[in-house]
Specification:
10-stranded mixed beta sheet, Adenylosuccinate Synthetase, Chain A, domain 3, 423 residues, Adenylosuccinate Synthetase, subunit A, domain 2, 13 helices, Adenylosuccinate Synthetase, Chain A, domain 1, 4-stranded mixed beta sheet, 3 domains, alpha/beta, globular, binds inosinic acid
């Protein structure tokens, strides 16, 4: 398979979990390189449904090693809960199949509290975060005051470091009118979590370098999507990490010249959770998909905003990620439609443009220019071969790839592994 970076080409929730699962089959190691437990992908183990937030879904396959890389922000209490949840389902998580980078930054309760407080203060301009403390944790990392896993598992050092950080953050919380947090409780919770996690903690950078030297296949799984990237997304309505392909390098310590290909995952339409511009948002698409029971977030349960496929956006995603191959998911969501729209340009301030403007306020004023395609009005759910897809469906998908300027290699028509077609 070679070393593969997988990214979301839209606003997250592109169905990456399913494609990761399919590609994991060919990988020896799966690495999560950014984000935290703001992400969530749902996995089905027999009749049981389970949502993973930090642990790569590769953990479900017995012969894979899963790694939480240095670029991730990690909530240790949440992670222990995830390990226990998998354990109850009979999925072993051991130091033989799961490693945590010692330099990943740790999420604390004040990060979550600050996340919530800042959202309230923003009022109508709120970002719509998952309130998992992601922004404040990355903020501490950039300000060089964060605590890392290496500090958490050092029983001699951690209590004092925790006290220093809590003292400062309690002052901030009090100034914001929030309740200060209790040192003893956090120390007890985090010490318990540290004791559980210590066996998994490793220098994942040297581990991955040894793996690249013996040409192991590594899959770098992206969380969130291109337009939630802190640099390339619709700032400030973004998450706080680099969700684009470069994040796989900085978030793992594996350099760009060891990466072989970038796979971009996108839906056959567009969705977004949280606030911020979404040029092709359309109530008729939301009504259709929500009516089918689809497009509710795995982490927060929020209904996702839905719209037509935005090729201006995905072309931008192909550019900043260097997408070689495309996977288009959720094709079956459009099965019932007679006509399908695709945005091929924007109109703003009397001008037609074919790129994503950097100013979020300008993007919010962009009106989509649509091209219409005939639908296929037949169920694709049971189709397992590309050639068996309705001709209008194949034409639609190939057009999306052409407009995105990347090669279509995977199409998915449902959550199951069998509902995946390779071109
Ligand atoms: P945060 O990452 O919790 O700070 O949230 C920032 C923005 O990213 C919000 O609009 C969230 O809804 C969005 N977001 C964060 N994680 C995900 C995800 O896994 N899927 C989709 N949107 C996400």
């Amino acid at each position: 398979m070679a070393n593969t970076i997988l990214v979301g080409a839209q606003w997250g929730d592109e169905g990456k979990g399913k494609i990761i699962d399919v590609l994991t089959e060919q990988a020896e190691i799966v690495v999560r390189t950014q984000g935290g437990n703001n992400a969530g992908h749902t996995v089905y183990i027999g009749p049981a449904k389970y949502v993973l937030h930090l642990i790569p879904s590769g953990i479900l396959r017995p012969d894979k090693v899963c790694i939480v890389g240095n670029g991730v922000v990690l909530d240790p209490v949440g992670l222990v809960g995830e390990i226990d949840g998998l354990d109850k389902l009979g999925v072993p998580v051991t130091p033989a199949n799961f490693l945590i980078s010692e330099t990943a930054h740790v999420v604390f309760p004040w990060h979550r509290e600050l996340d919530g407080q800042r959202e309230v203060r923003k009022g109508n301009n709120k970002i719509g975060t998952t309130k998992r403390g992601i922004g404040p944790t990355y903020g501490d990392k950039a300000a060089r005051v964060g605590l890392r896993v290496i500090d958490l598992v050092n029983a001699a050092r951690f209590p004092q470091r925790l006290r220093e950080r809590l003292e400062e953050n309690n002052e901030v919380l009090k100034a914001l009118g929030a309740q200060p947090l209790d040192y003893d409780k956090i120390l007890a919770d985090y010490t318990r979590a540290a004791d559980r996690l210590r066996p998994f903690v490793a220098n994942t950078v040297t581990y991955l370098h040894a793996a690249t030297r013996r040409h192991a296949n590594i899959l770098f799984e992206g969380a969130q999507g291109t337009f939630l990237d802190i640099d390339h997304g619709t700032y400030p309505f973004v998450t706080s990490s680099n969700t684009t392909s470069g994040g796989a390098c900085t978030g793992s310590g594996v350099p760009p010249n060891r990466m072989d290909r970038v796979v971009g995952v996108m839906k056959a339409y567009t969705t977004r959770v949280g606030e911020g511009p979404l040029p092709t948002e359309d109530d008729s698409v939301s009504d259709l998909l929500h009516g089918m029971g689809r497009e509710f977030g795995a982490t927060t349960g929020r209904a996702r905003r839905c719209g037509w496929f935005d090729a201006v956006a995905t072309r931008h995603a192909a550019m900043v990620n260097g997408i070689d191959e495309l996977a288009v998911t959720n094709v079956d969501g459009l099965d019932s439609l007679a006509q399908i729209r695709v945005c091929t340009a924007y109109e703003v301030d009397g001008k037609r443009i074919d790129y994503v403007p950097s100013d979020c306020e300008v993007l919010a004023r962009c009106r989509p220019v649509y091209q219409e395609f005939p639908g296929w009005q037949t169920s694709t759910e049971t189709i397992t071969q590309w050639e068996d897809l309705p001709v209008n469906c194949r034409h639609y998908l190939l057009t999306l790839a052409q407009l995105t300027e990347a090669r279509l290699t995977i199409t998915s028509v449902g959550p199951a592994r069998e509902q995946t077609m390779f071109l």
